[in-house]
Structures are given as C-alpha cells and as structure tokens.
C-alpha cells in the first residue's frame, strides 16, 4: 500500500526512500530501490484501475523530467480529460499514432519505401513466387544497406554506381539484375510523383553504360548467360536413360522435354488442364510467365506418358505429377536431384567423377530449364520451322508490338506438327513409356 500523506513537498520528493507516495488527484511518486524516481497517475475507468506513467522526477529545475509542480499540472490535465468521458491512456495512444503518421507523411519517401510500394503494386504480375522472392532478396542484400534509407528523389548515377561497383565484375549476372531492379524502382517513383526532378531512370542507365565495363564479356568470362543445356544431338541417348528411371520426377522431366514447357508450368499442371480427346494441355494464364493462357499440343508420346501416370489421378484438381502422398505436386528440387543422380551414376577417371550430361559450350551439368534451349536449337538447326512457330511453341511473347497486334493466332496446327516431330526425334532410339506404368506406381520421387 502506498504511504498516505497530505501532500508531497519538493524536499520530500528529493529525500523519499523506496516506496510509493500519494500526492492527491491520483498522482503518486514512485521511488525504486536504486533511488530512481518516477511520477505515476492512477485512475479508474469502467470499474478498472489503470496506471499511466508521467516520466521521471527532475533533479533540478530545467533538467530532464518533471518537477512536483509540473507533475501536479499534468495530473490535473489528465483528470479533466477523464471528466469529459475520455480515457487518457487511449487519448495518448491516439495522439502518438497521429504524430507518427504525420511525421511519416512529412518525411520523404526512401528508396526502400519506393521499392516496397513497387513490389506490392506488381505482386499480381508474377506467377512464380520464387521470382517475387528474388526481387526482395537482391534488393535487401545489395541495395538497401547502401541507399535504402536515402530519399528516392535524391538517388542519382553515383549512388547506383556505388551499389553496383562491388559486384559488377565478380557477379555480373546478379549485378545486371540488381541494376534492372533499381531502375525499375526509380521509374515507379517518378511515375508516382516522388522524383519530380533529377535524372530519369533512362538517363542513369545511359550514364552507367559509359561508366561501367560492358557486362556481356564479363558474363561470358564467368560462364553466365544461359541455363546449361544438353546439345540437341544427344537428346535420343538422354531420353533412353531418362525413360529407364521409374520415378515420378523422371516422368515430369520427360513431359517437360516433350512439351518444351517451363518446369514450373509442368510441375503445377493439374488433370483439369488436360484434354485427352483433343490432345491439348491448356495452361492457365495465372501460371504463365506472360500471364496469358497457353495451349500446348500433346504429341503421341506426351499423351502416352500422361496415360501412364493417370492411375495416380485423385480428382480433376489433383497434380499430374504428384509427390508420394499424391496430394502435392513435385518441387523443382525433385528435378534437380534427378539430374544430379543421373550425372553421379557415371564412372570416374583420373580427374575424378565426370558428368556425362553437360552443356556443349560451358561443360556445366545440364539443368531442367535448359531443355527448352535444346528444343529451340534442334528446331532451328534440324528443321525448316519458321521462327514465329518456334517462339510460339516456347510461349515467348512477340517483342514487336506492331507485329503482335496483327498476329492474333497461336499457330497451333503448325506447332502440333513441330511437337510431333520433336517427340519422334527424341524417340529415335527404341524406348517407350507404357512399360513403365507399373514401376511409376511403385516409385515416386
């Protein structure tokens, strides 16, 4: 219980021992064991006792904290607020939030704030969650520590150069992406009226092209530029070994190869998207990089593969290539591990283990995405297919907006003939998928 008194005195405030001392009107002096002294105001609201700190006791006039007279004035002010039916604590919280909001509104938008606004605005554009995360990660790692707190209106060439210089030569691919994302934030900020003056993103980009070494040679020297892809001449041999593996990941990769689709599109495929009657796989726009629906003609080999895994179907929305529990789709890691196993199975020589399936230029182990390049190289070098048909088969968007405005069709009939020819080429050596159906049901992964 606090010690009762008619009222506190200035001298008593300075000399009081540890404890709580009442002054009236709900004002109390709180003295800690270490001698620290604080003002506390207590009141009842809705039948509930509440307590509000009024700060520390001023040791001397003019020093930080409140004197006894000032604490009494504050207690009287709070009592008047309470008499009007307003809870002082709630009023203080509302006032604090309003002050913070006003301060934020008055403060200039930082680069990080503009980046977050851009990401929120473009969230729906990205069908691949990994792409969204890559944006956030690269900005958080390379950009925000240096210019994140800087007003976006003041970001100029030298600021961007300061971000890029440490990684431009050592991480050319990453640096190019970081530059592209910085410029995107600056364009967004300018469109939003947050960069009314200063250099445009285009001006900064042009200046950086002069100040920084050309990135293309750096990328080539570092082996960047493309996903490692299997030379198309080796596709029949690869397909023989792939089809010999009784695993769901192998079937998913095989289907990706036969359709020249992106792995994310394949792994996200559901049975509702498959039309066996017309041999068509329709990928919804929400799962396409271009955000536009894409029809994929299914070759006889691709259809047979789907028939082989169809016994695993548990409903129209179930994944075509499921995990062992048959409820979730395979992950991209499953295809990565599959390719690692296929390369790890090779023998060793004096130089150690040698990967058999490698890129023809960089000699790096192939990737699942690289098979789209294998298909494109085959179509361009081994067939007389028009470029428009090849690009449509890869679901590439026509960069020429005028040409695209007139080319409304998707060249489906011509693409069907191309995909059938691709499947026949991949099956140049005898191999089928039908005999693998029982094994697929036994081994999933």
Can you characterise this structure?
The chain is α+β, with helices and mostly antiparallel strands. It has 3 domains: 10-106, Integrase, DNA-binding domain (Double Stranded RNA Binding Domain); 111-222, DNA polymerase, domain 1 (Orthogonal Bundle); 232-442, Orthogonal Bundle (hpI Integrase, Chain A), CATH 1.10.443.10. 49% of the residues lie in helices and 10% in strands. The chain contains 19 helices and 9 strands. It has helices at 10-15, 68-83, 88-106, 111-122, 129-148, 157-168, 172-191, 201-211, 215-222, 235-243, 248-259, 263-267, 300-309, 332-344, 371-382, 387-393, 401-406, 412-426, 437-442, and strands at residues 19-24, 27-31, 37-45, 48-56, 274-275, 280-283, 294-297, 348-349, 352-353. It has a 4-stranded antiparallel β-sheet. A 3-stranded antiparallel β-sheet has the order 5-6-7. Helix 6 packs antiparallel against helix 7 (172-191) and helix 7 runs antiparallel to helix 8. It is elongated, with a radius of gyration of 34 Å. The model is unreliable at 1-5, 346-353, 399-408 and 430-445 (pLDDT under 50).
Biggest pleated sheet:
4 strands, antiparallel
User: Any idea what the radius of gyration is?
Assistant: 34 Å
The termini sit apart by: 69 Å
Share of β-strand residues:
5-15%
Which CATH class of the largest domain? Answer: Mainly Alpha
Number of beta strands: 9
SSE order: HEEEEHHHHHHHHHHHEEEHHEEHHHHH
* Mean pLDDT reading: 82
Strand order of the largest sheet: 1-2-3-4
Shape annotation: elongated
CATH H-tier superfamily of the largest domain:
Intergrase catalytic core
The name of the CATH architecture of the largest domain is Orthogonal Bundle
From the 3D structure, determine the CATH topology of the largest domain: hpI Integrase, Chain A
Total number of domains: 3
């Amino acid at each position: 219980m606090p010690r009762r008194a008619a009222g506190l005195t200035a001298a008593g405030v300075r000399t009081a021992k540890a404890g709580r001392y009442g002054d009236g009107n709900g004002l109390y002096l709180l003295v800690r064991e270490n001698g620290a002294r604080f003002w506390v105001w207590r009141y009842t609201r809705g039948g509930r006792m509440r307590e509000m700190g009024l700060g520390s006791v001023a040791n001397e006039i003019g020093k930080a904290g409140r004197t006894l007279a000032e604490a009494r004035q504050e207690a009287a002010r709070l009592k008047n607020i309470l008499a009007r039916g307003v809870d002082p604590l709630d009023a203080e919280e509302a006032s604090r939030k309003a002050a913070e909001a006003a301060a934020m509104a008055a403060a200039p938008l930082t680069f990080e704030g503009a980046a977050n606004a851009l990401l929120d605005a473009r969230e729906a554009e990205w069908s691949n969650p990994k792409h969204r995360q890559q944006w956030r990660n690269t900005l958080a790692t390379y950009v925000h520590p240096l210019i994140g707190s800087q007003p976006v209106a003041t970001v100029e060439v030298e600021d961007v150069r300061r971000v890029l210089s440490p990684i431009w030569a050592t991480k050319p691919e990453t640096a190019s992406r970081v530059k592209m994302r910085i410029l995107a934030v600056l364009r967004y900020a300018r469109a939003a009226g947050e960069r009314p003056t200063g250099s445009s993103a285009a001006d900064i980009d042009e200046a950086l092209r002069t100040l920084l070494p050309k990135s293309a040679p750096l990328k080539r020297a570092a082996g960047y530029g493309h996903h490692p892809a299997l030379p198309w001449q080796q596709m029949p041999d690869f397909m023989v070994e792939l089809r010999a593996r009784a695993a769901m990941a192998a079937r998913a990769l095989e289907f990706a190869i036969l359709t020249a689709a992106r792995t994310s599109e394949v792994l996200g495929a559901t049975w509702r998207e498959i039309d066996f009657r017309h041999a068509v796989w329709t990928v919804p726009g929400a799962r396409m990089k271009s955000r536009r629906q894409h029809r994929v003609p299914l070759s006889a080999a691709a259809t047979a593969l789907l028939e082989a895994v169809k016994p695993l179907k548990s409903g129209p929305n179930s994944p075509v290539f499921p995990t062992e529990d048959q409820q979730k789709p395979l992950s991209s890691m499953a295809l990565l591990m599959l390719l690692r196993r296929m390369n790890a199975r090779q023998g060793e020589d004096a130089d150690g283990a040698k990967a058999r399936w490698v890129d023809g230029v960089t000699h790096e182990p192939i990737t699942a995405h690289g098979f789209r390049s294998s298909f494109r190289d085959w179509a361009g070098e081994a067939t007389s297919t028009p470029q428009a048909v090849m690009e449509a088969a890869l679901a590439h968007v026509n960069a020429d907006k005028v040409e695209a405005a007139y080319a409304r069709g998707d060249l489906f009939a011509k693409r069907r003939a191309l995909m059938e020819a691709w499947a026949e080429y991949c099956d140049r050596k005898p191999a089928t998928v039908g005999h693998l159906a029982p094994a697929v049901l036994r081994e999933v992964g």
